Every structure is written in C-alpha cells, then in structure tokens.
Amino acid sequence: MLPVVSHAEGVFVYDQEGRAYLDGCSGAINVNLGHSVPEITARMREQLDQICFSYRTQFRSQPQIDLTARLARLAHGDLHQVEYCNSGSEAIEMALRLATLFHARAYRPFKCTVLTEEPSYHGMTAGALGASGHPLRRRDLNALLANQATVARVRPKNGALRADVDDWEEAITRVGPSRLGAVVIEPVGGASSGAVPAAPETLRRLRELADRHQFLLVADEVMTGLGRTGRWFGCDHAGIAPDLMVLGKGMSAGFMPISALLVSDKVAQALDHPLGSLLFGHTMSGSPLATATALAVIDYLQDNDIPARAARAGERLRLLLAGLNRRHPLVRDARGVGLQCALSLQSDPHRFPGTSLELTDIARQEGLLIYPAGVTPVLESVMIAPPLTVTDGELDELALRLDRALTRLTPRAPATDAH
Ligand code: PMP
C-alpha cells in the first residue's frame, strides 16, 4: 500500500509516519522547483485574494497577458500566440486539432495524417494516446482510439533507441507528403524511452522537411520544456523552432494544473476564427490563478538562472549514474540530458515491466522516489529527474540511496567493474 503523504520541504516529501523520501523524480517530473517555494506560494495567495477564475471568452486577465508575452519571448521563432489547457494531454489534443484545422482551412483536408515515433508518449486522452507510440499504454484500447486511421508511426531500425534522419525520411515517403499533416516529436524521451534524446540533426532535418513538404512540426515539450534539459526548451539543443510547441508539467512546477500550446504566426493566421474563441478551450483553461502561478514559476526560473543550474547539476548526476552503471550488472546504461536522466535496466521480457517497478518499490523503501519508464523490454528504465534546484549534496545522497536499492535488487551483483 502506498504511504499517506503529510508534507514536504525542498526535495524531501514526508509521510504520516514521519518517513522522509528524497524526491528523485520531481513527483511526475513536474515539481521542478522542489516542494515548497515561498516566492511562488506568496504570489498564489495574492492572486487567490484577487480572483481565481474568469472565463476566457468573457475576460482576459493580466497574469494571462503577461504569461503569454513571456512564453513568446522565451521560445525561439514566431510562437507568439498561446492557448492554455490544464494537462499535457489536453494541450496535445489541441495541437492535433489545430494541425488538422490548419490544413483544412488551406483547402488541404487530405493532409491529415499525424506521424509520431515509437517509442513516444503524448498523453492519456484518446487522441493523445492514439498518437502515442506506447503499445503498453494503448493495449486493449484500440476500440476507443478513433484516430488510428490517421496516425502513422516511425520506428528506429537496427536496434537503435530513437528514429534517425533516414528512418523519418523513409516514413515520410511511406505516408506520402501530400497526406502528411504533422509530425509530433519528443526532443528527449520521457515515460516512453527513459531519457533517450533525439539527435539534434534529426530535429534540424525534420524542420527542413516540414518546410519543404508543408507539414507542421509539433514539439511535445511537456516534460522537456522550461529548463528540465538544461536549456529553456528541448528544441534549443538543436537550435530549431517548431510550428507548435506543447508545454505542461514544469510550467507550474506542480503548484496548479496548467499546460499550454504555443502557436506560430503561420498557423494562427490560417485559422478563420481567433484562438481563444469558444470553439477551442476547456472550462478552466488559463484561469487567473493558474496563469499567475505559471508566471511566478517562470520569474523564479529566470531570476535564479535555473536552466543553467540544471545543466551543471545534470553533469554531476550523470557522473554519479555512470558510477552505478559500472557497479551494478542489472544496469545497462546511464543516459539523459540536463536533469532528465535515466538508468536503463536489464529486463525480463516474460514479465515486462518488472525490473523497473521492482526497483521503484525498493527505492521507496530506501527513502528515494524514482519513476519507471520504457515502452518495451529494451527500453525498460527508471527515470532520475530531481527538482532543478537540487544541491550537490542532495545529488550525492540520491546516488547513495539508489546504490542501496540497486544492491538489494541484485544481491549477487559482483562489486567490481566486470560486466
Ligand atoms: N507528453 C509528454 C512528453 C509527457 O511526458 C506527458 C506526461 N508524462 C504528457 C504528454 C501528458 O501530460 P499529462 O499527464 O499532464 O496529461
């Protein structure tokens, strides 16, 4: 049975029994600033006392206006319009709707195929799950996933973990550029692959192909966005701007549900009714409280130079994980970008997922929270992604607890480098 949570401070969460857990995966890789940040909760309280909710077709709000301007400035390219939702899945759905509408309005309704990668994870709602290259989460749900006819997948060849330029080019030819409406890609894998990055040249090539064949490039930055990878956005590592960018998780660092779809001028201008109209969002989309919270988070990220801090902490974390990789034969690989890291594990194909769930459980007993990931036995892994504010001492403690958990998982592991 899961412990009952009591309270939290920084990277530590406490249960009702008084046990402390070091949060090695930022909740669901969203509590990017740790669990208690007075600068943020004070701003939330201020907003609570003014107004929590106003409906987006009746009012704009100052926090929302400011947040949109800030996100547009931070992102590369012409992503000047922002639509708000409450979860990553909802914002992915909105990206799929906008991509479809974009081509329909331009008299290209046949450009409605969405090409995604396997492995990938884009969310749990029907459209987002249908677009996800995540057979484990899609299993037995095909009857519900109405978009299966309009989703195509690219799979990496030759035992590679992510599709490369050739794989994407082949898939685009197979679908046919005249039918391809959008490509959705995670710059660094999350729940799908366990922190395997797409090569920067793959992202750059996809940008060129999108321009040449008139499909939209959609970056799913729900996990990577806003500092997690050591840059503001995952796409920044490749120096490209997508046509649509989806943000979630770290946007409010776990303080409120909020997500966003950043929309390029090209797409916004092609729609015949304004974004933000009745035809788009959800009831709670972009409320003053949620947008004020996200704005406070972004202020904190900027004022404290958090993305650069995450890049430095990530280097230390990868060294520590590489050490664990050498010591424990059940670890196959240590990888990641910034503080989006993972240990890939020896998997038992007959009881997959097994090793990752078992290790997550043992780690919790050792006072460490980690996040199981991977869509196939080859990708079975645990994500190690602490808050971006983690200190060096806390990273060392994380590695110590993980070492103890791995030792219990592999009682006969040789204590040498011999594997
Ligand atoms: N896309 C990615 C890359 C994600 O990591 C997630 C959440 N793990 C989602 C989409 C879905 O977000 P949510 O759980 O907020 O719906």
UniProtKB/TrEMBL annotation:
<keyword id="KW-0663">Pyridoxal phosphate</keyword>
<dbReference type="InterPro" id="IPR005814">
    <property type="entry name" value="Aminotrans_3"/>
</dbReference>
<dbReference type="InterPro" id="IPR015424">
    <property type="entry name" value="PyrdxlP-dep_Trfase"/>
</dbReference>
<dbReference type="InterPro" id="IPR015421">
    <property type="entry name" value="PyrdxlP-dep_Trfase_major"/>
</dbReference>
<dbReference type="GO" id="GO:0031299">
    <property type="term" value="F:taurine-pyruvate aminotransferase activity"/>
</dbReference>
<comment type="similarity">
    <text>Belongs to the class-III pyridoxal-phosphate-dependent aminotransferase family.</text>
</comment>
<keyword id="KW-0032">Aminotransferase</keyword>
<dbReference type="InterPro" id="IPR049704">
    <property type="entry name" value="Aminotrans_3_PPA_site"/>
</dbReference>
<keyword id="KW-0808">Transferase</keyword>
<protein>
    <submittedName>
        <fullName>Taurine--pyruvate aminotransferase</fullName>
        <ecNumber>2.6.1.77</ecNumber>
    </submittedName>
</protein>
<dbReference type="Pfam" id="PF00202">
    <property type="entry name" value="Aminotran_3"/>
</dbReference>
<dbReference type="InterPro" id="IPR015422">
    <property type="entry name" value="PyrdxlP-dep_Trfase_small"/>
</dbReference>
<keyword id="KW-0614">Plasmid</keyword>
